[in-house]
Amino acid sequence: MSNGTGWRGKKDLLSIRQLSRSEIEDILHYSLRLEPYSGKGKNLDICNDEILINAFFEPSTRTRISFDTAMVSMGGTFDQFIPEISSIKKGESIENTVKTLENYCDIIVTRHSEPGIVEKLASLVGVPVINAGDGINEHPTQTLLDLFTVLKHLNRLDGLKVATIGDLRYNRPAHSMNLALDKFDGIEIFGISPHGLEIQEEYKPKRNKYEEIVINMKNLDETLWKINPDIICTWRLRKEYIPKGEDTLGYSYMITKKTMSKLKEVGQLIVTHPMPFEEGAEEISPEIMNDPRIVPFKQERCGIQVRMAVIGLWLGHEDEIKVVGT
Ligand code: CP
């Protein structure tokens, strides 16, 4: 049962800004320890008798379901709060809704379209609240699993050259990723976007090098070849956030077979994408999804072990996680 203080005094996980480099490293270390128990019938009993509620006010497949799987893998149970069939339909406020959910669970995972609202809701309840995406602000657990994927493939988080490309303005996981990478050393980030989708100042790295490059699709390949990155983070065009009436034609980037032909080899480069892909408007050409350097499906699998670590730590089970597999 949660001791009410969350992990190392942090009741909630709201932002990557809350975590130090060593805390991120610890979460990734624990994720690796938990990996053999991540899904598929080999559950731990660390979260016995504990209940997670997913309260998603925006659509999700992988974040929501990987949190479910993670909780079951830790030995706990989960329930879904579904706004469309809830008392919100009778006019109940979101604040009272979350205060009600607190009575029925030990930890709440929530996503909402309004930046900052998860923090506000977390302040109303005693149980840990995990931010699964608040508007265009942040998506911290996506970044933790992105970093875990990087570590698995490239074996380091320092000294990386990162091209972060696409819609940098409205992409919460892009924001969290920048903030996380900036905690490591010798990082160079190249923020590549079309005009109008540049990143806001508050999400730019402050310690490491950041170069903003504003181009359209026809210049993408040459730009990437010149940078020769270790990681290309591609981001979905978040049409749901782009103001209505804004012309999104010309905003799309796509990594193609030609793009990949002059980049680093397997073991030296990965191309990430948090998914989903919009069918017919993919940021990575479907014909190259079998290239081992392209890892979106591997990323989403890592979501289970990373979210197991987050659930276990924020429920106060660090000591039990430390000895898993010993
Ligand atoms: N990456 C991600 O957040 O995916 P979902 O919207 O499916 O949860």
Distance N terminus to C terminus? 23 Å
Mean pLDDT: 96
The biggest sheet, with number of strands, parallel, antiparallel or mixed sense and barrel status, is:
5 strands, parallel
Percentage of residues in DSSP E strands: 15-25%
Blueprint of the fold:
Layout: H1 21-34, E1 51-56, H2 62-73, E2 77-81, H3 94-102, E3 107-112, H4 117-122, E4 129-134, H5 140-154, E5 161-166, H6 172-181, E6 188-193, E7 209-214, H7 220-227, E8 231-235, H8 257-261, E9 270-272, H9 296-314, H10 318-322
Parallel strand pairs: 1-2, 1-3, 3-4, 5-6, 5-8, 6-7, 8-9
Helix pairs in contact: 1-5, 1-9, 2-9, 5-6, 5-9
The structure holds phosphoric acid mono(formamide)ester (CP).
Phosphoric acid mono(formamide)ester (CP) binds next to helix 2.
List keywords for this structure.
326 residues; alpha/beta; five-stranded parallel beta sheet; four-stranded parallel beta sheet; 9 strands; 32% helix; binds phosphoric acid mono(formamide)ester
Structural commentary:
This protein has 326 residues and is of the alpha/beta class. Helices cover 32% and strands 15% of the residues. The protein contains ten helices and nine strands. The chain has helices at 21-34, 62-73, 94-102, 117-122, 140-154, 172-181, 220-227, 257-261, 296-314, 318-322, and strands at residues 51-56, 77-81, 107-112, 129-134, 161-166, 188-193, 209-214, 231-235, 270-272. The strands form two sheets. Strands 7-6-5-8-9 form a five-stranded parallel beta sheet, with helices on both faces. Strands 2-1-3-4 form a four-stranded parallel beta sheet, sandwiched between helices. Helix 2 crosses helix 9 (296-314), helix 5 (140-154) crosses helix 6 and helix 5 (140-154) crosses helix 9. Bound molecules: phosphoric acid mono(formamide)ester. Phosphoric acid mono(formamide)ester (CP) binds next to helix 2.
